[in-house]
Amino acid sequence: MQIDFNVLKKLARPAETKIVLLVIDGLGGLPAGNNSVTELEAAKTPNMDALARRCICGLHSPFADGVTLGSGPAHLALFGYHPVKYQVGRGVLAALGVNFDLRPGDVAARGNFCTVDKEGRVTDRRAGRIDTRTTEQKLALLRDIEMEGVELHLLPVKDYRFLLVLRGDGLGADIIDTDPQSTGRKPLQAETKTGDPASEKTVNLVNDFASQAANLLHNEDPANMVLLRGFSQRPAWPGLPEIYGVTAAALANYPMYRGAARLVGMDALESEDFTVSLQTLRQIWSKYDFFFVHFKPTDSAGENGDFERKVALIEEVDGKIPEILHLEPDVICITGDHSTPATMRAHSWHPVPLIIGSPYCRPDSVHRFTEADCLAGGLGPRLPATSIMPLLMANALRLEKFGA
Amino acid sequence: MQIDFNVLKKLARPAETKIVLLVIDGLGGLPAGNNSVTELEAAKTPNMDALARRCICGLHSPFADGVTLGSGPAHLALFGYHPVKYQVGRGVLAALGVNFDLRPGDVAARGNFCTVDKEGRVTDRRAGRIDTRTTEQKLALLRDIEMEGVELHLLPVKDYRFLLVLRGDGLGADIIDTDPQSTGRKPLQAETKTGDPASEKTVNLVNDFASQAANLLHNEDPANMVLLRGFSQRPAWPGLPEIYGVTAAALANYPMYRGAARLVGMDALESEDFTVSLQTLRQIWSKYDFFFVHFKPTDSAGENGDFERKVALIEEVDGKIPEILHLEPDVICITGDHSTPATMRAHSWHPVPLIIGSPYCRPDSVHRFTEADCLAGGLGPRLPATSIMPLLMANALRLEKFGA
Description:
By secondary structure, the first copy, chain A, is of the alpha/beta class. Chain A contains 14 helices and 13 strands. In chain A, the strands form two sheets. In chain A, strands 9-8-10-1-11-12-2-13 form an eight-stranded mixed sheet, sandwiched between helices.
């Protein structure tokens, strides 16, 4: 059962303990091949297996059985935020991910450069996946756009993706995506879902922007149009420092994950790859007491259907575990945000293996860190993802008892 | 955790996949006899055991640990409807079960013919369990009853049971049962619990009906009086087609189960017995994509305390499993609605064994389909019954991911 943040706030107590949450993105899998083993079962993971033997294991599942989570809500659930109660748009995540100082009232959207044909129909939703540098060049053209009463911010995100922020008085974000989500169709006109006046006003600005963008990009190839989605405003949520009294840092090399981390009050540090993340972890070890370290490539391998690559990547992470343990965290948690079975080439609803290690975990009989072995673990086969953070705080002796 | 239907509606996506939910009523049991095995352990179930080996298993439990469910709420829970949030009276279930076109505003009640002595005290709450044909004859007498401003509908249900529907303007169903629930007492006068005017009006009609019925049945034997219970009006719930976009069919030979199925938007097809149900299943296979198949006799055997009979019936069902598998459903789920241990001669709160099979289930170490073996299953020992439907839809690839 999920506990209310207001209760947790009252229970939080100061401590010197340090917690590492290592997220191996898309970790869980499904059996494949002749041996009928999962990616994690196929991988040689002596370090995680050793941890599993002396720690407590289990599997966690998102807020509702059978429901597959996207990356944003999956991470928010891991940070303890119920994915339905705490919903946020792509635009806000993108803004936070690129370190943009998003203020209350700003409206943010995630943009894609795309390719349209002469009739204006989308032929490629990602404009041939142009790189970040090219995206920066195209954005320079769009910065000529002027609209009365509103300040325009355009920043590259990654590859063909960019961030659009509208800053002005009385804006609203109840706006549908202009991305038609398939080729052969024209970009949609922005419109509001409920017709609230602030969003109506913003709709006009968005359509003006899209129309000016079409003119300015007319002669470009392949990035001759933009698609916008995830219009949203920054929500006012209690952050992890406020709830638990921790200072928290995120080490992730994809903007979206840094965005999710910032949204819950972490300092998010850019990081080229996992090796750099671990170097940074050592450098900032004394400055923070909660560390979220993100490893992305396993999820990408799963989405590409590359079973062997996912196995190799899991082994790569396993090889780095001693570097983390060398720092002697009081609590270590290793898990994924969701499953991404290579056989499904997509995120899935299957529960995700989980280890929690601390001097106060009650060890179980799990000897290997696999989906099947974790079923017998002390954390059970379906721990709600939102229960993980309170458990980490408890293991770090950062929660008082409730009641006398 | 249960997910809101509104969220599920947004996640549902069209698919061609087919799902079979086979409910072996009262499946779960308790150990008995010298061997101290449950009914399911005593039964030879090679087909279900084979499924258990290649699929995912577990036990489900209704919405609250320790709470025993009646047949109506137990089925609604299996269909994903929280038994406390989605409550419905026996009257409505009976009406839907006999294909009566119950309209909004109608008040339905389940009636029993009973036997009363000269003082009007109930001596047999079921009038010697008269058969359906006899019940039809007695109802013919009662159809002479006339009451101003209200249309009366009387239909036989099964054996001594019948359906009473009052149709008119401004009726209410907040009315206590007239069934005293024990012999030696007189039928109760109808009265409202809260005194709302619509129900007050209806109370007068009900008492008038009971009094006229007593006169008309005065010389009958043994069915010389009626008892009424479960006064209710049809609720407006979202149905499975609306939530998940499935076309759903129910195959059940007891009216109550067809009624529960209709209440959640299934087409309920009458079926003499399980053999006929499976024949019909083949015939309608191309027309629907969700099939609820109900097997009742196991529950009756449990309620009769007939351990050996329940074992034999479980084996009978197991023998038919290949007929279902032959249709190649994308997802198959075999479970019960609740436990009915023969040793208890009643429904019980004990979790119910459960198999879910699909190309996307993550197999576990369960080798036999029994209560004890399922404890080690991947679905865990206490899966909420309301989680089953979302899991079936996920396994049928009928749910989009939540959030980006």
